Every structure is written in C-alpha cells, then in structure tokens.
Amino acid sequence: MLIPPVIFAVLPTLALVHAAPAPIPSLLPPYNTSAIASAIANLESLTTTVQAGLMQYGARSTTSINKANNQTSVTTSNNLFKYCEYSGAAYKVLSNAWNCPINCQSANTAGTVVDYHWSLKTIPSFGFVAHKDDTKEIIVSWRGSTTLMDWAADFKVVPTPWPAHIDGSAVHSGFLLAYNAGASKVKTVVAGLVQKYPDYKIVLTGHSLGGAQAALAAVDIVTEHPEWTGKLELYTYGQPRVGNAAFSNWLSRQPFPIFRTVYRGDLVAQVPPMEMGFQHQAQEVWYESSAQTKFCGSDAENSTCQSSLSPLQWSVLQHLQYPGLSFDILYFFIGNADAIGI
Hints:
Helix content is 31%, strand content 18%. By secondary structure, the protein is an alpha/beta fold.
C-alpha cells in the first residue's frame, strides 16, 4: 500500500521545529515574536495530522523483525550522552575552532581538536571530523536539518540502489545525495587521521538527517576499509529509516557496535514508513524516559521498544529533546527566521 503524497506534503513543515544552533542574541536580526509563538502553537496540530496519516497507512511496526546479526552490545549512559553532545555540536561548530556553546565545553568533549569542517548548502551536508587525544578517538559528526531546503532532502523518498556489493540494497536517494556531497573529503581526512593515530577508534555520529548520513558512512567506510572494522562505532540519534531490508540487515550483521538511539516518541524515527519498503538497522536504544534506556537487541524493528507506542504518542518536539543535544526551540525559530518567512 502506497502512502498518499499528501502525507509527505505536510512533513516539510516539520523543519520548523528541527534543532538548530543557538545564535548569539546580540547578533540576531529583528524577528516577529508573534509569528514565532504562532508557529509553536501549531506544532501539536501538525503532529496530530502526521500521526493520523501514518497510522492510517500502517507505518507502525507491530511485530519484531529479527535477522541474525551482531547487535547485542551495550554501552554506558554517559557514552550515549557524550556522542549526542558531538551530534549536537555539528549544528554549532562553524569552523575548525572547537569553541561552540555547551556542547564544546562539557567534560566529555573539552579538548577536542577539529581537523576538518564542511558546509555544503546547495546539497545540504554539514559536519566535522575531529580527534580527541585523551580518549584516543576520531569523531565524525554530521548535522541534521535546520532549513526547509534540508528537510526537502530528508523526504525526497525515492529509493535508489546502493551500494552495489549488497544484493538488492536500496537507500533513500535524498540521504545518499547529502552524504555523497561531502563523503570524498571526509574519508580522505579520516584516512589521514587513522594513519597518524593507528590506535584510535573511529566514532560516526549524527542527529536526524545527520544520523542517516552516519549510517551510510558506516557502510561506505567498512566497505572501502574492512581493516577498520575493529575500530568503528556508530551512534545515531533520531535517525529516520535509511534503506530497505537488504541494506539494514547487512549493516546490522557487521561486527562493530551500532546504537540507533531513539528518544521516547520521536516521530522522525518512524519515517519513511515501512509501507514504502524502509527498515531500520539494529540495534535500537530506546529512551523510555529521560532517565531510562532499553537496549533492544538484534531486532531491527522491535515491537517492545519505540514501536510499542501508538502513533498518538509520537511527538515532533521529542525529536529535539535527546539528552546531550542541547538545543533551544526558541532559538531555532529566531535563527531560521528568513527560512520560514517570519
């Protein structure tokens, strides 16, 4: 059963509540506070519309999907928080200087050195490559969506075959376009750092569209450099579904740890719908509450984790509330006033 285009027509509006860096108040342009308040007031109505559409067309997984894979590892709550800080930093790090507010100043991230920062606006791809000597790690973080143009890429739902070596694999063409825009230089920088720091691990992370790109990067990197498999870790936050079952099952079978983190009823984790042939990779780590996490194991779509919620419990706002992300919704509206026409 196909999802009617009207359901996806309403989804770009979700960019209005997407996370973004908090700009410096003294540098803010004039903005219309009443328009901001009105936009915020419309969030629940918008969420209800999307919930109803997805519920009607069966986006929710009611049974677990379990393929034999290696995703049964656990990690600490501090690691989940720490790499979410790095995911949030991708919205705020605007150069090779590690000096952003909050995320760059925590005990977990202080001392990080940015080796490469990219910002490609025509095809939205943003992020940084960094290393941290005391923890011996190379961190690559992709930014999520903060403008309407970015979100249009999120929901350009046309599966495209990729990568060639995985039989039957297909991924979201918009996500792949965004990833490929910066991939070549990112991989070159990472290769240089691996050569310089051969005993450092490689952590790929990102929030939202950034999480989707991190998942694509994991497949791309381990394919080109299988010798790096033992160094790799993947942490994503609020990641939408990236590819079909062939893609997600292949990724889930890799021996490096994957933590696809979902906060409570984050609606973005439920799109694109399974009805369109998309499937998450394992393993899901579900924040049942802000203080309680559940490791969902080898089930790619686990009916006892986020999919145990009804669509009426899904929330756009919870996409912004991941512990460690450190975003302020008001600053989002202010910082993107031009993009949303206020």
